[in-house]
Amino acid sequence: MSRRGLIGTAGVGVLAAGAGVLAGRASSPAAGAADSATVPFRAAHQAGIVTPAQDRLHFAAFDVHTESRDELVALLKTWTAMAERMTSGREAVHDGATGAGAYTPPTDTGEALDLTPARLTLTIGFGPSLFTTATGADRFGLSARKPRSLADLPKFTGDALDPARSGGDIAIQACADDPQVAVHAIRNLARAGFGVVSVRWSQLGFGRTSSTSTSQATPRNLLGFKDGTRNIKAEDHDAVSKFVWVGDNDDKAWMAGGSYLVTRRIRMLIEPWDRTTLHEQERVIGRAKGSGAPLGGKDEFEELDLQSSGPSGPLIDTDAHVRLASREELGGIEILRRGYNFTDGSDGFGHLDAGLFFIAYCRDPLAQFVPMQEKLARNDALNEYIKHVGSAVFAVPPGLGTDDDYWGSGLFAP
Q1: Fewer CB within 10 Å, N- or C-terminus of the chain?
Q2: Contact 180, 112 (CB under 8 A)
Q3: What is the pLDDT of residue 36?
Q4: Confidence of residue 16 (pLDDT cuts 50, 70, 90)
Q5: Global confidence as pTM
């Protein structure tokens, strides 16, 4: 399916009091059948995890300002109702854009009127600070329900994290095949939360950088390489069950069937990379740039040959990215990647602020993501061309069943 719209740009805090930023759209609302598809909102697991990855992202992390548990629960119920409506292609509130009259602020901002659902999914997660603040405060009586695996990630070698782009009490991931649909969803949730929560940071993304279904071709990242060739696919139920979904007996009961979400804003140093020879680019990655095949192979989906050597050494160098990130090197560890490209203008020094907004879902970030990133941070040849500038982790509860369920209902149950 062709992409809709132009690449959007946004910086930190693109939302304030419910305002959103979006680049122009190049196509009309009348689109193909794929654009009009609706992803079910209620299911055993939240949509937006193993859902075939959409083309556009708007991700937002929120700080909670209220001290009232009841007020927070009321907002989560409101958000759930709005999310269910928007993912089905309806306004956030019935007749919200124009129906309240000329002298009342609309309860839907209106920019998604006449657009299809565009496979919109909305996925919520809760950060460590919602359970216990940095000063140890238990604002909402949740500390005893904090899962063991929900902990701030350690500082990795080379991290240059911006606190304004990291952390958050609550995260909402909006994915869609139309950027305006995704931005509309986050904007309206932020608007409804005014006075209770505020956007801490947000990120627009385009051009998915992973395939989460065997029906999807492998996309490319801004380095020009195919990205996510060996990613877990939704159709591999054994791998998804083993590496993505939290088990019934893993930890807290409210997390069974959920997952953990890790985000990393990875800036790519585009200018030095673009002056690097093709041979060196391929050595750093460990794959052919054109075909995506592992070095020494011919087909993208060939297994990595980590044992053979050529005239100048191993076919895939010991510090090549694909070797260090491989399950073979990590004792069988895998994660489900769901990242997006981004470009957010320049850094003020004539360099593009662009890269990968890395998103991963895993059953236990301490046992899966942390050892993977520790190895990459220490030894990856790609580190010369990238910089990690934002980071966060969230507990993603399971999906919703009955109409009485709302986002976080298991966590906040008496």
Answers
A1: C
A2: yes
A3: 57
A4: very low
A5: 0.91
